């Protein structure tokens, strides 16, 4: 926007004398950011959007052009092309799925507009098509959750029990789904657990409930439900209870989840969700740090993984080990919940 704005303002100031120059000066410093967001499918996504909007505010010296793609890739492609037309200074993309970005990212590169990828990853032929990525290690999230389940079952004397898991997956093809599913599948093989059903819940509560209902009709031996985000867990819990079964530490079914949103950790406090693995949505400040470095002509890390914690209903499992690294597990309390940013 800077470029176009300056040209227009120069024309105006020629005609209208000095007054327009002040406007130009003000606009000259404004950094225009085009943000293509996946949608508003989950509490996590809402927190992520909030973080971006509060960071890239006018007061902070930015003009944010925000687009909600309603979880459709074609809407993201259109949004990015609009950002290019508007000659934004930076494009930020939260990609709904990993593939299908090469052409539009090449167009942004040809237009000289840096692209920053947040949250999920893009799978492109040439990674010079984006300047930087900041997000989560989704497979590690899955591995941590599964290491927790193994330790929890052992501690509860259930190490030899037949474990029948169902996997309510996220949006198929999204990095969060790919990684969390991989973590589950590797663990099920390693520990001899049965994955009796696997279906996408599209990261939404409604779909999560619908999928859980159908799984319960097909299988009466489910004892663990692996939800790939909190909103699916909310739906699954409703379906389980409507079917007359119980969740929680002494219930029929253990429900595990990801995102550690406020609502998710509230269910963890009650035990409805037995373990919630953090996926941190507060990417606004991280993206701003990248943009500031680029503005100063400094190098930026190509990929930056965010640190993430784990929360559980109780302190049966105090830490888990994945690839020789230890990760603490925090027993959730109202006090911790009240202090969290999202
Ligand atoms: C994870 C993010 C996922 C969340 C879901 O970083 O991509 O998308 O886990 C959201 O809640 O829908
Ligand atoms: Zn994460």
Strand content: 15-25%
Helical percent range? 40-55%
Enumerate how many helices there are, as a single number. Answer: 12
Broad structural category: alpha/beta
Strand order of the largest sheet: 7-6-8-9-10-12-15
Model regions low in confidence, pLDDT < 50 over at least 5 residues:
17-26
Order of helices and strands: HHEHEHEHEEHEHEHEHEHEHEEEEEH
Shape: elongated
**Distinct compounds present:** beta-D-galactofuranose, zinc ion
Radius of gyration: 23 Å
Q: How many β-strand runs? A: 15
Mean pLDDT: 94
Termini gap:
32 Å
Largest sheet: 7 strands, mixed
Structure description:
The protein has 342 residues and is an alpha/beta fold. Helices cover 44% and strands 20% of the residues. It contains twelve helices and 15 strands. The strands form three sheets. The protein has a seven-stranded mixed beta sheet with strand order 7-6-8-9-10-12-15, sandwiched between helices. Helix 10 (262-270) links the parallel strand 9 and strand 10 (275-278). Helix 3 (43-55) runs parallel beside helix 11, helix 6 (138-155) packs parallel to helix 7 (175-191) and helix 8 crosses helix 9 (230-242). It starts with a helix and ends with a helix. The model is unreliable at 17-26 (pLDDT under 50). The structure holds beta-D-galactofuranose (GZL) and zinc ion. Zinc ion binds at residues 136, 141, 279-280, 308.
């Amino acid at each position: 926007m800077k470029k176009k704005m300056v040209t227009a303002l120069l024309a105006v100031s020629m005609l209208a004398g000095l007054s327009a120059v002040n406007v130009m000066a003000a606009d000259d410093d404004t950094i225009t950011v085009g943000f293509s967001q996946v949608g508003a499918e989950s509490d996590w996504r809402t927190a992520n959007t909030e973080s971006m909007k509060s960071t890239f505010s006018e007061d902070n010296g930015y003009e944010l052009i925000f687009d909600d793609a309603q979880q459709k890739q074609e809407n993201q492609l259109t949004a990015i092309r609009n950002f290019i037309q508007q000659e934004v200074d930076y494009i930020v993309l939260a990609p709904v799925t990993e593939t299908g970005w090469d052409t539009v990212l090449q167009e942004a590169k040809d237009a000289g507009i840096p692209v920053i990828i947040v949250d999920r990853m893009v799978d492109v032929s040439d990674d010079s098509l984006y300047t930087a990525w900041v997000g989560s290690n989704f497979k590690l999230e899955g591995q941590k959750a599964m290491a927790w389940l193994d330790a929890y079952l052992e501690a509860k004397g259930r190490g030899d029990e037949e474990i029948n898991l169902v996997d309510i997956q996220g949006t198929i093809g999204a990095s969060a789904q790919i990684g969390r599913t991989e973590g589950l599948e590797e663990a099920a093989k390693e520990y001899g657990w049965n994955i009796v059903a696997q279906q996408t819940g599209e990261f939404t509560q409604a779909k999560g409930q619908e999928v859980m209902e159908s799984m319960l009709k097909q299988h009466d031996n489910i004892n663990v439900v692996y939800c790939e985000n909190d909103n699916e867990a909310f739906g699954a819990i409703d379906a389980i209870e409507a079917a007359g079964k119980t969740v929680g530490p002494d219930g029929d079914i253990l429900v595990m989840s990801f995102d550690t949103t406020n609502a998710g950790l509230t269910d963890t406090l009650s035990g409805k969700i037995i373990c919630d693995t953090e996926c941190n949505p507060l990417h606004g400040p991280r993206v701003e740090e990248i943009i500031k470095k680029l503005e100063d002509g400094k190098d930026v890390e190509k990929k930056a993984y965010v640190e993430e914690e784990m929360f559980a209903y109780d302190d049966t499992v105090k830490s888990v080990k994945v690839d020789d690294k230890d990760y603490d597990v925090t027993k959730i309390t109202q006090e911790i919940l009240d202090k969290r940013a999202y």
